[in-house]
Amino acid sequence: MHTSPGYSFAEKLRQELDTPLFNPLLKKWVGRGELDYEVYLKTPQLLSLQSGETERVAHDELMFQVVHQAQELWLKLASRETVELVAELDRDALWAASARLERVVRIVRGLSSELGVLETMTPDTYQVIRRSLGNGSGQESPGYNMFRKAAEGLALAFERLLARRGQTVLGIYRGGPDDLKRLCEQLLDVDEAFQGWLHAHFQLVRRTIGVDRSVKALDGLPTQVLAGRMTLPLFRSLWDARVELTASWRREGGHAPGASREGCMEGAMSAYAPPMVSGACPMHAGLSSAPRGDS
């Protein structure tokens, strides 16, 4: 095939993608905004929300906008699902809440994966895009602020549930009802996923503009302050319970590494209960000489 020196296959393809495409299976034109799929999802409006080809300051700006717009949509969904969680906890519908918590966890974990796409952008390219972002910062994100607010409401709903059941977080982990323990673990999954997303954002900032006291984000704050935000929990009482459990932990009642456990009922003694009566288990007598390091 002979082409002129100025012919560009890429340019031809780019132009084709900007026009309606004929789907031979459907025998219909897709992209005119007339098909049910396009009408329902409002694809003409959705796909026009990004800067046009001639408006972008860099090729990667399309990726930058798409990822951030997608994050806002997912955060909107996570926030609305969290509102439903509040309603479910308030009516003691723990099975329904458990299923919805799994959904929220998957959504928030997906946010971290999406940010990974932006890591393919080199820092010099981002510095070009950055000039056109004004003073914008992640703190201005409607989705981020919505989800934080929704999570606050969920934390209060959790407290109301515990009050109705006459339970505390610490008591639940010391032999309380299994359904509440499962709920605690799933709430922690959400919190851990959220903090993981914040950490992914921190790492993205680190590899694009750097993290240092001398490096200012667009809002004027040093990027170093992002490190502290990563560990701010959504459900503090669940994390505090870990600290309290460890503070009241007792070494007595375990088994010396490598020693026989014959005659000892597995799990018969709580790590937080008073020590067993001497002689209840033949292995308890020699524990004082056991190694004392966590591994």
UniProtKB/TrEMBL annotation:
InterPro entries from the UniProt entry: Trp/Indoleamine_2_3_dOase-like, Trp_2_3_dOase
Pfam families: Trp_dioxygenase
GO MF assignments: heme binding; L-tryptophan 2,3-dioxygenase activity; metal ion binding
Any single GO BP term: L-tryptophan catabolic process to acetyl-CoA
Protein name per Swiss-Prot or TrEMBL: Tryptophan 2,3-dioxygenase
Organism: Myxococcus stipitatus (strain DSM 14675 / JCM 12634 / Mx s8)
Lineage per the UniProt record: Bacteria, Pseudomonadati, Myxococcota, Myxococcia, Myxococcales
